[in-house]
Amino acid sequence: MVLVQLVHPHRADEAPRPGELLDLARDTSVDARQRLLLGVVALCDARPPAGELSPVLGEIFLTLARQAEREVRKVLAERLAHADWAPAALVNVLALDEIEIARPILASSPLLREDDLLRVLIEASLEHQIAVARRSGISGRVADAVIERAEPAVLMALATNRTAEISVDGLRRLVEHSRRVAALRGPLTRHPLLTEALAEQLYQWVGTALRQSIAARFTIDERALGGAVYDAVEGVLRPTTPEDVALGHPDRDEMERRLIDKLRSAGQLRAGFLIRAVRDKRLGLFAHGLATLGGFGVGEIRQALEAPTPEALYYACAAVGIDRAVFPTLLTELRKLNRGLPGDQGEAVWLRGALSSGSAARAFRALIGGEQGKLQAAV
Fold this sequence. Notes:
The protein is mainly α. 63% of the residues lie in helices and 0% in strands.
């Protein structure tokens, strides 16, 4: 439908009477829809007097929202986004409409209450949830609901919303989420509600630039934080029970992943740590560390550890700076921990000569990906 008459809407004193609009709302013809749109726009421009709308006008608006074409609903949402006189039921209908229609209502309507926004978070799309998280002045209850749902894009919208009422506990949970959602770290570093205690926690897994930003706001004891990381490493590398050593421990894999993330963020993840992990019989920690240090997937490293030949594992180790002279001893220790794997098929590729880290990484990916034709070119 081409709404050619939109460029010449009625003036306020030319707005159709309520009865005429109700007839148009029930008429599905193209001409009636065009006239209906112009009539509603005229009513919005005129702005009814303070107080409740008459039942007739309320029925007109609700009929329009439920039956009208997309273009009509979109114009209606834009016109009613700041109106405090519109029927609340209509506003809620528009808030749950497709996002291009709902966005102005979610951003600005003064008629949306806490329960309305919580309903949107539960029932509507991810784009609707982001719009709610960006809304000016959302309450602590709504902010807590966003944090509880833990959708990364919605958390990001909340972290950048300086007008949201976020409690100390809510901000703490956002900082915790920033362990896995890296995009949260920058906004949280600059957040006006960030406390020194939370800044110290955040400091452990952000990069150099964000550390400088935190240090400019708070007094951070880097030596003490380094000691805390070291203690955490010791606690994992020196388990006290056989159950803790077992690779099948239900919580071990996740704990090792988090520890590796912390070491990387603290700048303490190096090739020497991987060698020590193997010496302390921590195969899982070695796998997570090698994957993170080399930018590989942990599944790819585990594939290399289960392979019939140690070739792929050697390339991964070479990519992170493990010397080829050390690799044979490391391989022996790994086989003791891993049922004799990787196997001893194939040639000792580490005897060919040194590789650059980039060439080794490309060779690893080509070999693990099964692209044998690319392997020679990468080397």
